[in-house]
């Protein structure tokens, strides 16, 4: 890259440069101030959260992991940046090839579905090699996407089915007969956007064969009918792919708690939200005390959206208020429960807002008068679904350890696996199974170690190799920590580590252990436990499990195992201990 002048890019903004690890990247980063080089998928995930991203520069021929230059992986990465991370910053594509080289070819059909992002708003192209002046001039042209434009780009350019819908749309109302050859050319192009599995879902082959047959006999109405059916199938598949909680085209039911004193309103809201396109399962209560009990009994935080009528009367008597009004119920319920509070009201705006502003929680208001037609119900359902997902994200982010969020070898992180488990239809059964296994381990520990003052032999050996086992082992670790005062001299995370590894000496309380070792911190880190942040690290169901086992959660923390402040292990220490693969053997109780 030629460079004849100093770079004067805005130094307060960041430029992400997605490139192969080569000399060209070094030259590029040397002339762009405040640039961040990204050389792998893992680095990308970490850096997309960087504040103030001015623009993203992407080499189209990225050769990350096992990708080839001809995979044009940079285009796929750009689609993910828009679709999954909702980044609005402009994207500048770079390549030694001209844009025409990336478009459809019969040998590389799948490339054509990626290339749509090149034509989208917020996308720009500059051929290589370029001078810093040329890059600066291109920067001057760029503009970030608006939120509305981002939605359009995601739907039309980051979802291949959206492109298929666009291609089919003009064929629904043919004025004259379309030559079969022309239709076949269009089909060849469409097939570059869909997989074999999607073809089966769309009933693609059958509908296309029938459409060609209709064309061959000049049956325009029949042809139109087949194309319309294919388009409807595509739209159904497209809409199912848009929803993060959709699995195989069908949405999982979202449980919502509703407090409403009018039984007719209860039934109406339940009926509307239970619509097959909305799949929201409303459990309603007319009495605030009963609703509070339901929240208290929701020990796994299943209700992540709670809706309450603002004004609540007793037995439809407008002269007698319930003890808890809707707004007070939401405030009280939120003290020990994570959920998105929504209030339904038809009262005077000024009084409602005045009360809301004095609450200790943020409550979203929705007027009952707005729920009058199908479109408004659809909007309300979307609001509920979005808030449900937002709360789920908050719950999944409670463990703050980097181990919880870290991806290795392109495998999902623990946070992602946990989120998938929570959103799945078997979450309640999964959680019950985890609790039962944890109960067995904890009961065994109590019977032997505490009650009999004898350390058990290796009766349990659980490898930490999946999310389920991780959640089980975390509970035992937390139980040992919060129960530490009842365990002889086991008042440090070093002692807890030795208990779980079967090396604890009760007679000395671990006094002869090697305190210079950092294995106990690394072990806690492998469980995604950030010891200096207890008890904020606890997931809702972990809190409930501890409570059911009569274990009091307290905020006290002191690690006297090394007489130093616990700042977690260094990268070097983690690497050294991981080499020993101690955690592959599991822990022993």
Q: Your description of this structure?
A:
The protein has 589 residues and is an alpha/beta fold. It contains 24 helices and 16 strands. The strands form five sheets. It has a five-stranded parallel β-sheet, sandwiched between helices. A hairpin with a 2-residue loop joins strand 6 and strand 7. Helix 21 packs across helix 22 (519-526).
**So how many helices?**
24
**Average predicted confidence as pLDDT:** 77
Specify the structural class: alpha/beta
Shape: globular
Report the count of strand segments.
Answer: 16
> What is the rounded distance between the termini?
61 Å
Classify the beta-strand content into a percent band: 5-15%
Low-confidence stretches: 2-11, 104-111, 242-251, 455-460, 509-513, 557-589
Helix content: 40-55%
What's the alpha carbon Rg, rounded to whole Å? 29 Å
- Spatially, the strands of the biggest sheet line up as 2-1-3-4-5
Biggest sheet features: 5 strands, parallel
Topology of helices and strands:
Blueprint: E1 14-18, H1 23-31, E2 35-38, H2 41-47, E3 53-59, H3 73-83, E4 91-95, H4 111-114, E5 123-127, H5 132-141, H6 147-157, H7 160-168, H8 180-190, H9 196-202, H10 204-216, H11 220-242, E6 246-247, E7 250-251, E8 254-259, H12 263-273, E9 280-285, H13 288-297, E10 305-309, E11 313-314, E12 317-321, H14 326-333, E13 340-345, H15 349-356, E14 364-367, H16 374-396, H17 402-405, H18 414-423, H19 427-450, E15 461-462, H20 467-482, H21 493-501, H22 519-526, H23 540-548, H24 571-580, E16 587-588
Parallel strand pairs: 1-2, 1-3, 3-4, 4-5, 8-9, 8-10, 10-13, 13-14
Antiparallel strand pairs: 6-7, 11-12, 15-16
Helix pairs in contact: 7-11, 8-10, 10-11, 13-14, 19-20, 21-22
